[in-house]
Amino acid sequence: MAVYFTHRFASIYRIELNEDEIAFVAFHIGAYLENTTHTTERITCIILAESYHTLSQTLVREVGENFTDRLLILDVMPLNRYLQYRPACDFIITALPLEGERRPVVKVSPILTKQNITAIREMLDAIDRQRELESARSFLKQLLHKELYFRNVCFADETDCIQFLGQKCIDNGYATDAFVQDVLLRESLSCTAFTSALAVPHAVSQYAERSFICVLHNDMPIVWKDKRIHFVLMIGITQQEMKYFKDAFNLIVELFSSTSRTLSLLKTDSFEEFCEQMY
User: Which CATH superfamily is domain 139-278 in?
Assistant: First the structure.
């Protein structure tokens, strides 16, 4: 395809194109086809190199071969063109000096080394982690509902608390009685008080009618088996959104594992203040 295109282009404009220029066209056609036939899940980068000579071709090929399932190379360009246009991408791979760049940068040798491959992989891992965190935060925002936020309601134990919160979820169309019974079953199997201040009751095998987090925040601690907790976050997820559960769950536990963040959450006194600290 690239050879045909360059031949037609050269014929129309009466110019000659060398092998490097044909290879350059081939790369861009390949990148376009890759971009239009794959999902946007892959991380994008731009490679900076002086010109599309043999070393640059080798660099691009080796980067592509090592990270074909994770990385989409959007463009290969010289430094001056990049500084002029600064096209959007997730990070930069450069064999050239680059100062003051806001985007993440991986500096590589013109001939890719094992250390370069490791550095690119670490960058991809870091971007993936950031994406997962942002996705979890976005999903978490969707789960919190003002009608499912309660303040200073006393209970004898965790069973009473789950039954109360469960009934509120049923009344508001978020869950069924079968879901609440499944949450109680899960709690009987293993305590869901994962930190000294937080319990996260959730179901074993039942799905919610609508995804939610039902929040209870008490100033006086609630007796939860052998613990005394101040927050209960009952989670319910629909079957369609269950794939997001793990990241959202981990984010909640991570937030409450931080002493400073827990203290900030303890100082909140409204749904809005609580949400502000959670995000």
Answer: Mannitol-specific EII; Chain A (3.40.930.10)
